[in-house]
Amino acid sequence: MRWSYLFWLVVLAGAAATLFEIKHEVQALEEDLLATERRIRTERETIEVLRAEWSFLNQPARIERLAKEHLGLGPMTPDQIVTVDRLPPRPEDFQRVPVALDELLPPVRPEQLTGFAATPVSETTR
Amino acid sequence: MIGQNRHATRVARVTPCGRDLGAQQGWVVELEGQAKSALEIGRTRLLVTGFVFVLAFLGVAGRLVDLSLFGAAAEPARAEAPSAAELRPTRAAILDRNGEILATTLPVASVYANPHEIRDPATAAGRLATALPGLDAAQLGAKLGADRSFVWVKRHVSPREMAAVNRLGIPGVRFQREEKRVYPHGALVSQVVGLTDIDGHGIAGMERAGDQALADGHRPLRLSLDLRLQYIMAEELGAAMETFSGIGAAGLVVDARNGEIVSMVSLPSFDPSDPGAASEEARFNRASLGVYEMGSVFKLFTAAMALDAGTVRLTDGYDVTDAIRVGRYRITDYHPLRGTLSVPEILMHSSNIGTVHMAMDAGTKRLLAFYDALGLTRPAEYELPESGDPLLPTPWREVNTMTASYGHGIAVTPLQLVRAVAAVANGGELPSLTLLRREPGDATRGTRVLTEETSRQMRWLMRLVVERGTGRNAEAPGYLVGGKTGTADKLAPSGGYARNKRIATFVGAFPMDDPQYVVFAMVDEPKGIKATYGYATAGWVTAPVVGRVVDRIAPLLGISPRRGDDEMETEQRIVPVVFRGMEFAAR
Question: Chain A within 8 Å of B99 (Cβ-Cβ)?
Fold first, then answer.
């Protein structure tokens, strides 16, 4: 009889202690959470401010001035735009046997050709 | 209660079994009469109370089981603080089509003070003035010395200023969190983006048009505007306006297919961060609210209408030697020519007389119906509340048909004009305008107003004007610009037209083999300069603006230049079969 009282007393004390421990922990976590949320909020606000600042610094007039001052860049002219199929062949391609001729000649293995790179034809021209 | 009625009876001290009950326990208390009934009542009450308590505890136990075993889902798992998302700036941002911020709401701090807590107002004011540039120390000192408990020191300070004030550590000086609408690109987009009032309600431009969505939405409003194009247009227009001492200017770039407005400029503009300082003139959106007689640009519509109706063919021509007299009017040409001009030549040389003949051959009814179909008779419908009503003569007489055919006596907004030109150039479908970005997929089909064939012919005619006609200065090599100049005399306050006040307009599209964008430029009251031999006509004032704008924006829009053989081929493709390799004289 006495032993069982003692046992329950110990269990009770243990349960109470655990409860307080957990409660304390939860409180600490909740404080943490609030602090984190507050931090997220301030970070978000800072991001908003920095985004506005970024947009402000990206004013086309400013970018143009900076590009002129530091990069020597100007608006692109049509002469500077060329499509790939209009490009002249590369100097190293000059030595290569033209495709049409290639067909007339007896078949040779690629490594027998002079100046023929290991890369396939389609990759060098495109 | 157990008082005088108590009877104590001595009973045997030993139980019948012989167990000794001890000194006091041989006594049994017996109660009678009133005392007994009182005890009974007490016992009943105790029972009832006990029962109630049992019920209450059962309730608690039941609830405990309910919460711990079944209730977990119904209740939030944790005590929730207002989440970060809910505390975001209230009014959503306005972005351009590439996501550049045009307007956003930022939290800002305002500095206030409680003068009662400030011991030495003069020193405090002096120190605050060092941290907050632009404050007058003496004035602030007087404010801080006042017998009040609240004065604003400075509203809306920057984070840097806030840190500086914090560092001073003056007791009684505090911060108030506020929200402020910020426009990073200022005057560049102020006409379109608009303004909010002090409470954050939109009062002009997109701020007003999208007020609902902006106020409750966390999603930013994405406009069709492209900031880079906006800048280029504003810069070129501003330069032209300055060179020719104009009083105002307007510019538009509109997607010819889906009606997206990618640039809308109205000069002079205003700084949205200080709207109070803006004049009425600066706030007025010339591109969409102002109505103007557009002049010869309207010849495009006359020609398109006549060609579409079949009352004239490309190869037909009219004698433009004699001026046309109607009542007290006399219609002449700006550059008088003699003989017969073909339809392409009429447009190239911008002949009023030829155009009037063309319009009269087609008739008033057809012309009016066409204007109606092009949306020139109603205000343009799009997001902004600022959309001007066109001015048409009422009643419409025959002479109005004549003058309207070359753009006089009918006043429309630049936006209406651009939309109509888009329809003429894009294959004959009238697009619906929008300032909101359209996703590539949801391009709405416009209503058909011209046949494909007429539109193709018109494209060639527009190209001709730039290639060999009055719009030569609009040429941007490689981009096949086509368009039409328009120089209209402004109405004089005294009635009739003022000779020295005009509006120079150029509306163009590019590239003409497959028009993607319509570009519009207008300068109000340009004055001739030496470099243009005193001319202030559209060909000198606004055509170069469009040429330069196209030259600069085409690479940004991903339109590749037609070069070399390609250009020749494309040119050939535009030219109608009957004219290939020929001159354009009427036959």
Answer: no
**Structural contact between residues B433 and B261, judged by C-beta atoms closer than 8 angstroms:** yes
Q: Which of residues 82-111 of A touch B (CB under 8 A)?
A: 82-83, 86
Of B291, B289, B361, B357, whose CA–CA distance to B324 is shortest?
B357
Query: Could you give the count of Cα atoms lying within 13 Å of B90 in the half-sphere of its Cβ?
Result: 10
Complex ipTM more than 0.90, yes or no: no
Tokens of B303: 């020609």
Contact between B104 and A51 using a beta-carbon 8 Å cutoff: yes
Report whether B346 contacts B358 (CB < 8 A).
yes
In this structure, what token pair is assigned to residue A5?
Answer: 């009282």
Rounded to an integer, the average pLDDT of B456-471 is 91
At residue B295, the 3 state secondary structure works out as helix
Q: Is B100 on the interface with A (CB under 8 A)?
A: yes
DSSP tag of B257: T
Q: Please provide the distance, in angstroms rounded to a whole number, between the alpha carbons at the two ends of chain B.
A: 137
Q: Rounded to whole angstroms, how far apart are CA atoms B85 and B190?
A: 29
User: How much is the mean pLDDT over chain B?
Assistant: 85
What is the band of B15 on the pLDDT scale with cuts at 50, 70, 90?
Answer: low
Return the residue matching tokens 């008739």: B363
The length of chain B, given as a count of residues? 587
Determine contact, residues B188/B269, Cβ cutoff 8 Å. yes
Contact A48 B479 (CB under 8 A): no
Joined tokens for residue A118: 């290991």
Backbone region of residue A115 per phi and psi (left: phi > 0; alpha: psi in -120 to 50; beta: other values): left
The H or E element spanning position A30 is helix A2-57
Work out the number of other CB atoms within 10 angstroms of the CB of residue B59.
10
How many CB atoms are located within 10 Å of the residue B200 CB? 17
B279 catalytic? Reply is: no
Whether B185 has its CB under 8 Å from any CB of chain A: the answer is yes
Tokens (6 digits) for B351:
């002949």
User: Is-contact B87 A38, C-beta < 8 A?
Assistant: no
Measured from the Cβ of residue A126, the count of other Cβ atoms closer than 10 Å reads: 8
Q: Give B458's contacts (C-beta < 8 A, 6+ positions apart).
A: B300, B303, B304, B307, B424, B425, B450
Q: Distance (Å, rounded) from C-alpha B366 to C-alpha B401?
A: 10
- Distance between CA B461 and CA B358 in Å, rounded? 15
Question: CA torsion, points B46, B48, B50, B52, in degrees to nearest 10?
Answer: -150
Position of tokens 């016992």?
B43
pLDDT tier at B394, thresholds 50, 70, 90: confident
Q: Which value, in Å, is the radius of gyration of the alpha carbons in chain B?
A: 42
Pairs of CB atoms within 8 A across A/B: 79
Answer whether A78 sits within 8 Å of B561, measured CB to CB.
yes
